[in-house]
Structure formats: C-alpha cells, structure tokens
Amino acid sequence: MTYCDTISKVAPVPVDQFVQYSTSRSGLRFHRTLGSFSDSPHPGGVHFTLNLTAKYQRIWGFGGAFTDAAGINIESLSLQAKENLMRSYFSTDGIEFNFGRVPVAGSDFSTHTYTYDDVRGDTNFTQYNLTDEDFFYKIPLIKEAQELSERGLHLVACAWTAPPWMKTNGDYSGFGFLKSEYYQAWADYLVKFLDEYKKQGLEFWGISTGNEPINGIIPVNRFNSMGWTPWSQRQWIKDNFGPTLKKSHYTVKLLALEDQRFMLPWWINVLMSDKQVEEYIDGIAVHWYWDSLFPPSLLDRTHNNFPDKFILATEACVGDKPWEFDKVKLGSWSRGEWYMEDILQVLYLDIVAHILT
What we know:
single chain, alpha/beta, TIM Barrel, 8-stranded parallel β-barrel, 31% helix, Glucosylceramidase, glycosidase, Glyco_hydro_30
C-alpha cells in the first residue's frame, strides 16, 4: 500500500500493552504493531519510561480549517475522490478530525478580499449576507464532516477583518485598526455570523477575538487583516464583545490572542489585567509561525499565569513564506515532519487541541 487514506480504529488493549502505528519511506503505511511494557529495560535500542502517576492536560482533539481554498479544491474532485478524502479526515476509518476552524468571511485562503456587509454605515446590518463561498464551499463540507464524524465536530469561528468602512484605513488589509465608534457594531457583526450559520443548521463551539492582530500593523499585507493593540482589544472585549456574547443565547467559548507564540505571555497578561475581561475569556489561541525562533517555554509561562484558561493551537501551514516558492510539495516528508515535531512539542506544553490550516 502506498497511501494513508484509512486506519483501523484503535481498540482498547491490556494495561501492559501498547499499539504503535508506523509510516515510513520504505513502504509502511499506518502499519499496526502491538508491544508490551516491561519492568526492566532490554539491552540496546531506545528506552521509554512511562510514569502512570503523572497526569497533564486532557487532549480534546485535532482538526483542520474550512477555508475557501479548502472548499474550492475539495469540490473540484470527482464525487468518489471527494468522498474518500472526507472519510479519511472525519470518519472512524480515517484520522477522525473533531475540530474545524471557520473563517468569518474572507481570509488569506480566499481568492479575493470580502466581508459580509460592505455597505458603508450599515450598522443595523440590513445588507448583511453570507456569500457564495459559504453556501458552495464551507457550509456543505461542514455538514458532510458532521455526518461522517462519530465524535462530533467542534467549530471555531474566526474573523480576519471588519468591513473597510469600520476601519481607520478604509481597506480590507494593510495598516489599519477598528475605529472605536464601531466597537459595538463589530461585536454585533460577529454575533450575527453565529445567527446566520445557525439558520443553516450549524452552531459553534468557540469564537476568537480575531485572526493575527499583529498583521494589521504590516502595510504590505494584501489579504484580510485588522490590527489591535492588547489595550484596545481589552477595552473592546470588556465593553462590547464580552457583554454581547453573554447577552446572546449562545454558549460559545471566547478565545483570545489568535496569533504567534512570541506574543505570549505579554499580550494575555495585558488582557487579563482587567478581571472583568479575564472572566469573559475561556481560552487562548496560538499559531505556529516563527516557533523555531521563540522558545516553547512561552506556552508554559502563559499556562502557569492562567492555569484555568485552556490553550488551543488554531493555525499551522507550510509554504506561507515569500521564499517558499513551492507552495505545495506533494509527498514531502520534510513538511510532514515539521508538522509532527510541532504537534509533539506543543502537546508537551499544555496545548489541548491542534488545528491545521
């Protein structure tokens, strides 16, 4: 077998045994072997010591993102290929993804910049509408994934930008921030997204404060982005987004940061310095870019500062750097190893779930 489309479901094994799955360049593909623990080490080889008394965070699961790009590519497949792909991701025959990140309108995985209400001054959102991307790509695939999943699907909503008319630069991207006079309108816009998806039969487990706020201070960005400072975001959560979510009939979890590891723990420290804001925030979302330059201990420090807040890895992709000319490298073992190393590292340091883009 030269592919990894399916994997047999892991059945319980006796307490003194373990199951190992191996994939290798030499030809193994999800190859299952059964091993036994021993009280005394054997000579040679690699030794693992298992401490059954030490307990850490519970792992909630793994997932991917329902972006426009994902939908366009998946829907371009033949019906049989599409079914096989979706089963390999979400069914018990596959890797059983149980988390899904959903962009609120356009993202850097879109063919163009857009929001759900680009009509200037429409704070009552009479012109607010989901788009073809939602109806043709996101919503149908999410529903298919839900049908395939036995574990359920935890959906996390994340917006890349507010409509340009709400921003200081009047644009979808570039150096721009949310105007303070639209703080409440932006909170209402996000809750309306939850309303619109509920009309389509979909409800969300979580929603974040917004994708990569640091991108809003980078003038050269050409995809949807909006800047925040931790102080302005703290004020918005306290006065607008937090109360608006609480008043809604949704019980979604609020995720803060949604940006890189190097912003920890200082960004979260600023947000949590207001106890009211701390009460609104349920967890912290982090991305993997530039992790090689910044120590994983930043995750540990953040967890130690706020042990009652879970940490979720919500975005990771390869090929995003300007010097990575091959955006897609089919069959690349090195890229697979990058993902594997990162997942192992962050699971060791308090992450409860990992979502790939």
